[in-house]
Structures are given as C-alpha cells and as structure tokens.
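Today's session is about reading a structure prediction critically. Students often jump straight to the picture, but the first step is always the sequence itself: look for stretches that repeat, for charged clusters, for runs of hydrophobic residues. Only then move on to the predicted structure, which in these notes is written as discrete structure tokens rather than atom positions. Here is the chain we will use throughout the hour.
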Amino acid sequence: MNFALYSANATGVDLVVFDASGRRELKHFPLPERTDMVWHGYLPEARPRLLYGYRAHGPYRPEEGYRFNAHKLLLDPYARSIVGSVRWSDALYGHTPGHPREDLSRDRRDSARAMPKSQVIESAFTWNDDRRPAVPWHETVIYELHVRGYTRRHPDIPPALRGTYTGLATAPVIDHLRRLGVTTIELMPVHSFVDERPLIERGLRNYWGYNTIGYFAPDARYAIQDPVCEFKAMVKTLHKAGFEVILDVVYNHTAEGNEHGPMLSFRGIDNTAYYRLREDNPRYYVDITGCGNTLDMRYPRAFQMMMDSLRYWVAEMHVDGFRFDLAPALGRELHQTNHIGPFFELLRQDPLLAQVKLIAEPWDLGEGGYQLGHFPAGWSEWNDRYRDIVRAYWKGDRGLIGEFARRLTGSSDLYGGSGRLPHASVNYVTSHDGFTLTDLVSYNVKHNAANREHNRDGNDHNVSWNCGVEGPTDDPAIGTLRARQKRNLLATLLFSQGVPMLAAGDEMGRTQHGNNNAYCQDNELSWVDWHLDDEREQMLAFTRRLLALRRLHPVFRRRRFLQGSAPQGATGKDVTWLTPSGTEMTVVEWNQDFARCLGVLLAGDAFGETDARGQPLRDDNVLLLFNAYHDAIEFHLPGDDGARRWRVLIDTTHDGGIIADETFHTAPTYDLAGRSIVLLLQT
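Below is the predicted structure for this chain, in token form.
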C-alpha cells in the first residue's frame, strides 16, 4: 500500500504503525519521497485493518503560523476509518497548556496513547444493482434525523442494533418512514467527530456531531463492528426501499479549535495550508464559524481535500446529496462571501457532484454572513425566513399576511429573480437546532439548564408561544389549543410550495422539555420516544394524512412559481387571494396591520405544466383558509350557487384534524374557527 500526506512546509513526515489494540507502536517509517509537496512511500506489508498515524517534522513558530510538533501523533485527513476516541490529556496539545502565552513553547509529551488511530480498510462491497432513487425536487420531502437518537429507544429493534447504521435500516424504521410518506433522509453529521474536552469534563457529549475530524470516515460510534460496511449496507437498504440519503456535512471548521486547541490532524500537518489565519498575526485563527477556526477553501489543497471527500461519499458510499453547514464560510475569499467563487462554481461543474442534491445553510458568523437567497442555480437553501414568519403568524403577530403569503407560495421574492424554482426553498418550522414542534407551542423561553452552561447557550429568538402556561400543564383547554397549533404549523408546512423538511419525532410530539440547544444531550432528552398514547397517535395520523394529500395533489408541489395570472388554456388565475368576505385581496387589505385571516384558491387547471406523458397537468381546485386570529370568522366561499360544492378534508379544530372524505360543504360561508386551517377541494 502507498501512504501519502500533503504538507508544503514540513521538513519530514513519519508513518507510524500500531498493533491491533492501537496502544503499542510497532514500526516507524520516514516517508522517503516527496512529489509536489506530497510525502509518500510504499509499505509492502500493509493490509486491511492496519492502524497507523503520522508525525510531521518542521518549524514551530506560531507567530508565523507554523506549529509542527513531531511528538504529536496525527490522524490521516484521508483516512477511511478512524478507530478509538480522543482520551483527553494535556499531551494532545502542541504547546504547553497553562503558560501565560500558551503557544510559546513546543510541548514534548507524546500524544499517541491519547489519540484515535487511522485504519486501512477493505473497500470491496457488493452493491448489486443499487440505484439512487433520484427523487425529483418537486416531489421531495426531507426528514432530518440523528442516527443514534432515532432508534435508541425503539422497542421493536433488537437492543444491539439500536442507535446504529444497521438499526436505521431495519424493517420497523423503514415501515414507519414509508407510512409517513417522506422521500429523503437527511442524516445529521456522520463524519468522524470529537467530543470536546469541556463537555467531557461536564459529563456530557457532542451529541449532534458538528465537530468533524475525519471527512472520509463514517463515525464508529454508530457502528457495531465495521462502520464503512455497515454504512454502505444502510444506504443500500434505504435505496431499495425508495429513500434517498443525504448528509449534513461540516467543511467549514474542524475539531481542533482555536490557537489553544489540541493537535489532532490538520494543525500538525500544515497549519498554514488548512486554516485561515489572521493576516496581521498568524498566531491567531480567523473564526467565522463560532467554533474557533475556519478551514481555508482559498488554499488549493484544502479545497481539493473537501472535493475529494464529497466525491468519495457519492461514488463509494452512494449518498444522494449534502446539506452544507454554514455554507457561506466555504465561499469566502477575503471577507465577503463570493457566490461565483471557486467552491460554488466548481461544485456545480463537477460531473459527479452536479447529479446530487445540494443544500446550503445560507449563513455564517462573519461579515455579510447572512446570504439567504443568494446562492446560484443548482442550490437549494434552508429558508429560516419561512420558519420565523410561519411561527410568528401562528403566534398571532400582526401585520404578517403579506410575507406569510410569499413564504406559503415558495418565496419567489428570494429565489425567483435568479432564475431558480420553488424547490430552492427548503421550508421548515423546526429542525435539530431549536425547539421541537411540541416545545414551540409549550415554552416562551429556553430551558437549557441540563447543558450546564447556566442557560446562557442557545438562541433567545425562538418566536414561540406557550399558549398561556410555561411547560407541561393539566389544563385541558391549553392542551387542546397546543395540539391545534401543532396541526396548524404542520399543515402550513406541508401545503406550502417548495421542499418541506420535517424534524424526526415531531410527527409523534417529541419534546426536549424546553431545551432549544440539546447538542450535548446524548440521552432520553434527545432520543426519539416511540411510545404512542392517544394524542401522539392522532398527531402521527394527521401528519401521514397531510403528506398523503401533498403526494396526491400536484397543486401543492408545483415546479414553477405561481404568477397570479391565467396560463394558456386555464379558466382562471393559478392563485387567487381572498378576504373573509370572499373578494380578492386589494393592496390596502394586504397592508392592514390587524389582518390575520386570508384564503388562497389554487386552480387545478392553471398549471401551465405537463405530466410525465406530456399531457397538461390537472388537479382539483384547492381552497386553503387560514385564521391566526383568536376568534372565529365567517368566511365566504368562492363560486356561484350552482358551483359551491366543496369537500372538506382538513379542519385543524376537529379532533385529530382529519375530516371524512365524504364530508361536503354546500353553504355559502364557512365558520372558520380561531387559530385554525381548513382545506377544501372542489373536484
């Protein structure tokens, strides 16, 4: 086997081979060759499962950005498997901790016993006829989940498989996902990551995994024995069941932190090549991620490493796309994000990566870091404007119906101007970060004491409403209102144009008891609870019904933005906005601060699109009535006396929210209850 490591500034690189336990150093090989700043050498006796690491020699001058220290064992950035975990001690640091200027002296303690090891793998795997489901964007429903937390409490999965890649591919999980109606599984980070020292000292873990150290290695904590083979088998099984698998990836920073952080890999290999350092003082790191450092995608080899990683996960692991954490950090050149820079342009031009789904979290913590709507064609984005406006509208805030309508119809104001389509907007009301759906209607403020940070962590801007009581309550009226509000939020999400994303467990009323930043809670606070009482069973049935309606009616998943006009061959406008009096909204009415009720009529014959056979696309007429006001409002339904025959399918005030299919409404008005949504169909 050939071993190779890029380092432009090292004076030498040693390959270190360990015994099967990873504790005893067996051999030490200086890599003899250097080609284009890549140190390399051939090891004839190398076999799969061999454990190894590197030691890099070179200058230790932090004031110039150089931090080489051959006493520190380093992980291979290209390792396909990483065995063991970091055992925190001062030996892991390249400098001497505790010194007033901690980086003045090079620490001479050997870190090998405290370090995980890189492992050679056997890459062969029988994929058979595995094919990507290639779900069209307009049919996509994303389901965000955590590999460990999703199955850790599942009663129908064997205990040994719970919390693993294998457990995620078992029949009970696949049956739940199929019956739910989602199409695309978004896994929270599975790249090998590190639990930070302060968390370990507080008895906690980095549960979410946004602290990557190995961009080619699936994290071993989710495996039974072989993380690579088990991950591949999971993807293969999910593909066979029709589900896409996309990864939440963190290429913006690593687990090595700032200048006071440990030396685990990149810092010791070539600090100036991988990290953005302050130009006025390279001793310090540029931090636009809030995590201590920022990978420098302006540097060719750092950029290549990321591209090689992405290609590896598509070509070898068969994943179907990526959601990029803090994506603007990847496109930064000097200070401002450059959206036609090398990262975004080259990614779209790559023949392999251009075939998969690309989703940006469109913000970071640097100057000009909020870039919602500014990504190029081919990218979709997490739409936090959608999240906040939908939350605020159902909370009862005034003056929002105009923006609420824009979010409901795909946010053309954000994406239409650049030629993108409604699927550019990934709509969500909850995600891993923030309140769960149940907590969103049960808490006004965060309750993060369990994180042991004195409730200082987590976002204070939750746009939540507790319905009158903070936290759990036995008051039946508040319980009824909370259940209705959850139905309102879910129905809004799944009847909106764009790509909906559900957070796992919200369909069953999962709670984190008010913790809106459970990143360090690897316990029952974060794990999905699969026990279903009557209320949770109703919630699950309601979510399934919403997704079935979305799948059945293409009017909810249009491929082009609504225009408010009549396409050729249509009898009316593709979308008509209605006041409670049944008249079309005027400019004055859109701007009435007190207005919190409106209707939207989606014409089933006004698509201007064709189906897979080239035939004009048709659907029923759909009428959605929204009332975020606390009192009932009489809503006049459109249509003359001979055509006013509507089938009522959803009314969120009804027990469970679902109305029997045969229920028709022929009266000229509908008594629209306070804080409710009604869905009516006209065949």
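Discussion point for the tutorial: Residues 280 and 464 are 43 Å apart (CA to CA).
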